[in-house]
Amino acid sequence: MQLLGLCPLLAVTSTVTNALGLGIATLLVLICSNATVSALRHWVPKEIRIPIFVLIIAAFVSCVQLLMNAFAFGLYQSLGIFLPLIVTNCAIIGRAEAYASKNPIKQASFDGLMMGIGFTLVLLLLGSIREILGQGTLFDGAHLLLGDWALGLRIEIFHFDSQFLLAILPPGAFIVMGFLIAAKNAIDEKSLQHRPVVEKNIERVRVNFDDQ
Amino acid sequence: MSMYAAINKNSKILALFAIACTATVGLVNELTKDRIYTQHQKHLLSTLNSIIDPKRYNNDLTLDCVNVANMSLGSDKEQTIYLARFNSTPVAGAITTIAPDGYNGNIELIVAVNIDGSVSGVRTLLHQETPGLGDKIELAKSDWITDFSGKKLMSNNDSRWAVAKDGGMFDQFTGATITPRAVIKAVKNATLYFAKNQQTLFSQKNDCKLDDSFAEIQETQAHAISANRGVNH
Q1: CA of B158, closest CA in chain A: separation in Å?
Q2: pLDDT band with cut points at 50, 70 and 90 for residue A180
Q3: Are A66 and B22 within 8 A, CB to CB?
Q4: A182 in contact with B at a CB cutoff of 8 Å?
Q5: Which of B3, B7, B9, B10 to substitute to test the interface with A, most A CBs within 10 Å?
Q6: H helix or E strand, kind and range, residue A172
Q7: Interval A146-166: pLDDT, tens
Q8: Does the residue A164 lie in any domain?
Q9: A107 falls within a domain
Q10: Does some domain include residue A96?
Q11: Mean pLDDT, residues A46-66 taken together
């Protein structure tokens, strides 16, 4: 199981809206940076590839930040410092180094898209659990991301007189994350038990589409 | 390739990338600069309108202000005071101030005081108080902060301006007394400061006036304000 990019995951997912906002921002940056790194991969010398990847990712994150500041001000304010912190998200530079720098643009962009969607889904799952446990609502603040029509989207599942603080603060995020990982491990083990053991030849899996 | 030649080539490529990336960010910055400014002013105006009824003034509130530095506003840094006038008659002032003794650091507030000395409204702009406990000073979490509206400060030693625990008229929060205490003190100091310095403030030079390059945005602001006034909140 890949555990990358936990810092923003744990700090921003206190509500579904925040999780969705950060997930979409990360998705955008992932696709753009993967595509760019892939397009430029033949011109990037091996020795300086890391600083160049960081430059590209930082440039994209800065642009996403400016665009959010201009077009989604409310969400920009609630994401706060975690928007620029996307630059430090190891998942992005990890994919740039492991995949995008070795594969053509189409595959690299698709990889960025899938990684981004996966990341967003985990953010959403964590966000909804924490929002329900901590505030008893779902989609609180959705109008900041989706526009005023989303004010009606807010569902109050139960009403707390005082909130379940632990779920909203970072330690709660770690605990819920731990449960999710444990659950996934359990599911993986179960499916391994049910699958018949097949003797198969070890094949070399093709990960590189570039022709030399 | 010799090592020197390799370093030479690599540094040239790195410099090229750096220039290209910086140029891209610079370009996006230029394209979004105006819109970001407008968003910021819109947000500021809606905060100001929530503590000073827009029907009471008709000047361009976000562009009519003075910057002052005074310890009674919680720090020695310059703070902005927005001045509301109706046909050039002073109506109220919105003072950005800081409560330095919050539980977890500074709390930034904006306090609107009428010229008769009564509080028109208070909002919390920025804080790091404990979620679920001290964060009740945020309007989104509780309407405690609206308790200040309409209150008057009778004297410097008005004992009603304290939390109920200290014999005052303001509620404290269960489990968080330091936060409301800090906010009450800051609002009291800001109100006192305004009462003492009203005359000077309203006759001081405008620090928020824009230069000509933003004249077009200023016009947009004026349109936004009159459109805003058409919608009664």
Answers
A1: 32
A2: confident
A3: no
A4: no
A5: B10
A6: helix A170-194
A7: 766 777 677 777 666 666 677
A8: yes
A9: yes
A10: yes
A11: 91
Chain A residue closest in CA terms to B37: A70
Chain A interface includes B32 (CB < 8 A): yes
Range of the domain at A39: 6-194
Contact B28 A66 (CB under 8 A): yes
Q: Which stretches in chain B have pLDDT values below 70?
A: 1, 211-233
Q: Which amino acid is at A147?
A: G
Q: How far is CA A42 from CA A54, A104, B141, in A?
A: 17, 10, 53
Q: Please answer yes or no on whether A62 and B25 come within 8 Å at the CB atom.
A: yes
Q: Is A44 on the interface with B (CB under 8 A)?
A: yes
pLDDT (0 to 100) of residue B229: 57
Of B9, B22, B35, the CB nearest to A70: B35
Domain assignments of chain B as residue spans, ordered by start: 1-224
* A71/B contact by beta carbon, under 8 A: yes
Q: What is the pLDDT of residues B25-40, one digit of tens each?
A: 999 999 999 999 888 8
* pTM metric for this prediction: 0.70
Q: Is residue A212 part of a domain?
A: no
Alpha carbon of B13: minimum distance to chain A alpha carbons (Å): 8
Number of domains forming the structure of chain A: 1
